[in-house]
Amino acid sequence: MADHEDPKTGKKNKGTSKEVCGYPLSIFFIVVNEFCERFSYYGMRAVLVLYFKYFLRWDDDLATSIYHTFVALCYLTPILGAIVADSWLGKFKTIIYLSIVYAIGQVAMAVSAIHDITDTDRDGTPNNMTFHVVLSMVGLFLIALGTGGIKPCVAAFGGDQFGDHQERQRRTFFSVFYLCINGGSLLSTIITPILRAQNCGIYSKQKCYSLAFGVPAALMVVALVVFIVGSGMYYKAKPEGNIMGDVCKCIGFAISNRYKHRSKQYPSREHWMDWAEDKYDKLLIAQIKMVLKVLFLYIPLPMFWTLFDQKGSRWTLQATTMDGNFGAIVIQPDQMQTVNPILILTLVPIMDSVIYPLIKKCGLNFTPLKRMTVGMFLAALAFVCAAVVQIEIDKTLPVFPSNFQSQLKLLNMGNHPVTAGLPGYGQVTLQAAQASEEYFTFEEDQISISVSGPEMKRNISLIKGQRQTLLIPLTISDEWQLTADLTTKPEEGNNAIRFVNGMNKPVNVSTSEVVFGQIEKFHYSNYSQIRNGRATFFLQSGQLSCAFSRDFGFGSSYTFFIPSTLSLGSNCQESITGAEDIKPNSVHMALQVPQYFFITAGEVMFSVTGLEFSYSQAPSNMKAVLQAGWLLTVAIGNFIVLIVAEVAKLPKQWTEYVLFASLLLCVCIIFSIMAYFYTYIDPTEIEAKFRRNVGDDDDDKNDKQRKLEMEMMKRDLDRSDDEHYKGKQTKM
Ligand SMILES: CC(C)C[C@H](N)C(=O)N1CCC[C@H]1C(=O)O
Questions:
Q1: Which residue windows does the record flag with biased composition (Basic and acidic residues) (predicted)?
Q2: Ligand 1 in reach of 182 Cβ (< 6 A)
Q3: Contacts of residue 263, Cβ cutoff 8 Å, sequence gap at least 6
């Protein structure tokens, strides 16, 4: 590609690369690069917590805090990348160098996950964990530096490829760019967990984390190679020296100069940055004003990401209390998150080709800031939907005892019916091997239970805030036992299962995945977690060996009772009864679709538009810096989730959703007011005017005329006017 020089600006012209359907060909390499890079990033992230937990053997707290620190770092490092790009290396070189750092980081992660490296005794577990921890931490640091560092540069570099006459194409580019982000992340979050589930190893076979990290590493190398292949076609804007250093010095000078001239005798200036005019170039001051105006507008934006980020946390937890059975397929709670990239892939084209043109046809000027405001509103609406779903879920949740109550269930281990007298509940009759359907609630510390058939009477000590099951024994001489039952729903939508052995001899119980172990006579096992679907239990006691199967939904708890009558040749399928201690989730996961729809529609309006807005409103020499500013709003949003959730601590989850929706609604109103006063600018036009003026200066232009023109340009930047958006200044 031959770069043409603009005679007025003295800058290389963009948009002169070979074109396909009006788009610069170079764009193809950039979007493929983004697709591969996002595959690499989100794929690695999908298995990271599991790697910490099961490979490095960290506890949940350490695993989640290191995970969140890593994610936060990934959205903080863009500042670094942007400064390097805009002030020193330029975007092209920054992307190349940081991609190399990134790929090295991914390779380090893949190598750190090869257990054979330090598995000297070949038992399948690493013997030098420090090696794996250090290597993976170095890897993660390099990845955070790489992914964060290149992110603002790639988006801005893509925008740079378009000429001023290609504004529509540039807007489409940012939509396609977003599609690539989500296409890459969708594919990788499906593929890498499958790779992780494989067994691999040289001496012993273990879960294949090295493959799950290795494929993202390979994709990052592909991203780098694709980007380099396109090298000859790119428009590469040259950095204009240490721009960030100049910006800081200029702002510092403006502040100190303003302070020095604070006395009333000095005439005030239109903008506080104008106090830098005594020393700094007017063009630089104008550019700083552009950046500050946009950054000021960004202040309320992190709130959007605060809500958005809860998809991965609160909403996934909500899904664990729902039923994921969709008939032909069963969706796991964490898989619901993939609805977001799937919806992005459908909504972005619909918005671009149907909704926005329709709005335009209706004569409405749906400017970027209006879109972003609507996007925020939709995200707030998504949280209202989440609150409604939560209220529905709460109705179906078991009523666990408060701190002043205790709950008791009865299980008749005998072969004959018994009638138990319970204070406040009268007589309760239980058939042989039957449990009471519900828990009985008491406020007393101790109750007296009388059982007839055989006659027995006992004082039972209850524990406040606890659920227990009383195992009514076969005979008077046998011990009465109280179990400790669950007082919360099982985690992650799993089912908590335990066994009570009513036989006079020990029994071993297991499934193909879970071992309940040996259960002594008249005793009970611990709870084990069983995933949804059909599970087959194998029972073995001396000569006796049998199996039975049950279907499980999500989030239930059962106590299976092995009756004393079970013997060689018994049919376990019929003989073993189960007491439903916690009902399976009954609110369907499909009810989460509206909230996912609204948050994703909001994201398309907010985030895709925000990306393009950050580019179009940035001065030419600070495009990457403003992209980094945009990404910083994502990072801050992440932190706010942690703070608000910690501080608010609301008793009911739905109230927390309503709180977040209300907060975003308030922020949305503030943003719309700020946006109303924002004046869209065309940085190229303003910069060209300033540059022209400098040229005119050289031609000894009339000083008065020059001053007048400068004043008009300054006013362009400082004032709001009513012109239409598109190249010219316009209000929200
Ligand atoms: C969380 C999804 C996989 C990706 C999301 N829809 C998205 O595109 N982004 C979330 C933060 C900004 C943006 C990204 O650049 O990844």
A1: 711-726
A2: yes
A3: none
Structure tokens at 607: 């985030």
Structure tokens at 72: 């936060």
Among the residue ranges 59-68, 292-301, 520-529, 659-668, the one predicted with the least confidence is: 59-68
CA of 328 to the centre of ligand 1 (A): 29
CA 180 – CA 186 distance, rounded (Å): 10
Q: What is the DSSP string of 401-431?
A: --TT-EEEEEEE-SSS-EEEEETTTEEEEE-
Distance, CA of 174 to CA of 215 (rounded, Å): 27
Please choose, from the candidates 132, 130, 142, the residue with its C-alpha nearest in 3D space to the C-alpha of residue 73: 142
Residue 335 is given by DSSP the state G
Residue 673 clears pLDDT 90, i.e. is over it: yes
Residue 149 belongs to a domain: yes
Final residue belonging to a domain, choices 535, 567, 582: 582
- Full domain range(s) for residue 546: 406-582
CB-neighbour burial class of residue 727 (10 A; exposed 0-12, middle 13-18, buried 19+): middle
Residue 384 domain flag: no
- In the chain, the number of structural domains is 2
Q: Hey, what amino acid is at 274?
A: D
Closest CA to 612 of 626, 598, 632: 626
341 in contact with ligand 1, CB cutoff 6 A: yes
Smallest CA separation from ligand 1 atom 15, residue: 181
- Mean pLDDT calculated for residue range 485-502: 91
Return the C-alpha torsion angle 37, 40, 42, 43, nearest 10. Answer: 160
Distance (Å) from CA 415 to ligand 1 centroid: 60
Q: Is 175 in the pocket of ligand 1 (CB under 6 A)?
A: no
Measured from the CB, is residue 42 less than 6 Å from ligand 1? Answer: yes
Q: Is 340 in the pocket of ligand 1 (CB under 6 A)?
A: yes
Beta-ladder partners of 529: 496
Q: Give the mutation target among 36, 181, 304 for probing the ligand 1 site: most ligand atoms within 8 A of CB.
A: 181
- H/E element, 706: helix 703-718
Tell me, what's the pLDDT at 701? 45
Question: How many degrees, rounded to 5, is the angle at CA 609 between CA 607 and CA 610?
Answer: 60
Please report where in the chains the tokens 């399928």 appear, as a residue. Answer: 573
The residue among 535, 557, 582 that closes a domain is: 582
pLDDT band at 709 (very low <50, low <70, confident <90, very high): low
CATH assignment at residue 147: 1.20.1250.20
Q: What is the ipTM of this complex?
A: 0.97
Residue 486, pLDDT score: 96
Residue 262 burial (C-beta neighbours within 10 Å; 0-12, 13-18, 19+): exposed
**Ligand 1: which atom is nearest the Cα of residue 631?**
12
How far is ligand 1, taken at its centre, from the CA of residue 181, in Å? 7
Q: Write down the pLDDT at residue 9.
A: 42
88 in any annotated domain = yes
